[in-house]
Structure formats: structure tokens, C-alpha cells
Sequence to fold (312 residues):
Amino acid sequence: MSDGQSRPTSGSGQIVVSGLTKQYRNLRAVDNLSFTIAPGRVTGFLGPNGAGKTTTLRMLLNLVTPTAGTATFGGRRYADLQQPLQHVGAVLEASSAHKGRTGINHLRVICAAAGLPRQRADEALAMVGLTPAANRKFKGYSLGMKQRLGIAAAMLGDPQVLVLDEPANGLDPEGIRWMRGFLRALAAEGRTVLVSSHLLSEMQLLADDVVIIAAGKLVRQGPVDTVIGSMAHSSRVRVRTPQADALANALAAQSATVTRDADGVLLIDGVDAPAVGRAALAAQVELHELTTERLDLEGVFLELTSGKAGIR
Ligand SMILES: Nc1ncnc2c1ncn2[C@@H]1O[C@H](COP(=O)(O)OP(=O)(O)OP(=O)(O)O)[C@@H](O)[C@H]1O
Fold:
């Protein structure tokens, strides 16, 4: 986003997590987790409360020491990166800064400490739309402005990889929309974008790939469409008819599974909508509604993680 150029999608932006484990006293917060995150894509990191997302991200960034396993960026552990800010940008919680410091000065202090040119502070602030608030003190920033400042700080080193924990927290709908465009543009430049979130409908719009964990373990990984399509009931047919018994009998002959909801609507698995329409025509059944319902990411998430309650 700094120069509008495409970045090389070489292995340098690949994140590889292998056998990552974190054992707290009585709790295995992260349990033998392995997955790969590709450059040039936005990956959603999803899991119920307490699943181990933050612990995993903190291990990636060398803020928590793993009990076992490794996490690498382009083959190197975070601790071994020569200039980490120029390789990996991270926002783990709404930015904290000296309360009396202005937004621009907060970024300049980080630039000075990391040996980055001072003008990067202005560029990063502009990137997140905070230029009008550059000279306002941090204590007067809203939660959404603090989130943007955190992202600006993460962008100072023009990193190949972005890691964000719940970046939409505190953002209003316009802010969430901005964030989506911002992260998608970074991925389009060839960067690696890893984002944890609870907002599944937002993730469906934002993410190319997902990694879903529950109780510290990997549940599913892959492109969003593939993960949704992998579910046994990724779509089903919904029918409203005054002759439900006749249609159910006709469909039984086609090895469809028919259930009825409380309103008498038939929910049909195992055959598609045209097949249901043909069966209805052949049996002279009158239809008032015939639609295909597709599982969305939220439905998939709930199905995959049900019974694996996050709070442990
Ligand atoms: N320092 C710690 N000591 C002991 N237990 C911890 C520590 N840090 C995290 N845990 C526990 O590890 C588990 C995973 O926590 P983590 O914060 O990684 O989950 P999460 O998926 O990020 O959850 P949320 O979505 O609620 O933020 C939780 O049960 C948590 O209580």
C-alpha cells in the first residue's frame, strides 16, 4: 500500500505453525496446532471464546513461550527476524500509548526506536485516515481511532505480514467497511494478512481462507468456500406446500431426507431444488415456496465447534 506495487508472493510471507502447544498449569490452551497461512490472502482465525486464538497469536510474536512446536515467518521464528517491524506488523489489542502524547508523536517515537525514517509516521497515519487527528492527544481518541492508530503503528515498517487480533472491535459500521477495504488491499499487494475475529458475517466478506480452532485444537482449515462446501449439509431445499405428506412420500423414493420445521415447512437434504420441483410436478403437488438454503460461515462455525465449548 506504500507504493501501490505488487509485492513478490515468495515464501517470505508464509506463516507456518507446526505442533504449537501451550500448557498452562492445568490447561492446554493450545494443543498441537499446525497450519499454514499463505501470502496474498486474508486468513480469518476463528474460534469460540477461550479457544486459544490470542495465545496462538502471542506465541507467533514471541510474547508467550510455546511449551512445544514452532511458528515461523518465511522460515524464521519471530525472535530470529533481524528487523521484525519490517517483516511483521501486529495489532494485538487496541493500541495503548502515552495518554498525553499526540497520535503523530506516538508513531514518531516508535520510528525513532526502530530506526525507521520519521516520515513513515505521517505516511502510516494517512494510510489509516487519521491525519486530521494527528495532533490530538491519545487520551481524546475514540476506541475506533485507537484501533486505527494501532494499525498505523503496525504499518510503520511496511511489513510483508500483518497479524491482527479482533481489529474490528470498537469500529462503527463505516469503520468496519474501511477496515475490510484496507486489509483486502494489503492482501492484493501480496502481503499476508492474518485476522482473528468473532464477527463471522464480517469474516465471510473479508476472508479468503479460514483457520478454525476449538479447545486449542485445529478443527478446519482452507478457503472459505471449500470449508463451507465440505459440510455434509452445505445446502438444503426449503419447501412450503399444502400437500406436505404427498411430497414427502414422493421424495422418499429418491432417497432424500425430509424434515419438517415447526411451521410445517419441509427441509430437504440429499436432492437439489430442480429435483424437488420435478418430484412435485410428477406427484401433482402444489408448491407455495421452493428455495435453496446455503450454509454460511456462521452456520459452519457453529456446527464445527458445537460441543467444543470455548470456556475451559
Ligand atoms: N497466562 C495464562 N495463564 C493461564 N491460563 C491462561 C493464560 N492465558 C490464557 N489462558 C487460558 O487459555 C485459554 C485460551 O485463551 P485465549 O485468550 O488464547 O483464547 P481466545 O481464543 O483468544 O479467547 P477469546 O475469543 O475469548 O479472546 C483460556 O481458557 C484462558 O483462560
The longest strand covers residues 27-37. The radius of gyration is 24 Å. Residues 24, 27, 29, 47, 49-55, 312 surround adenosine-5'-triphosphate (CB under 6 Å). The chain has a mean pLDDT of 90.
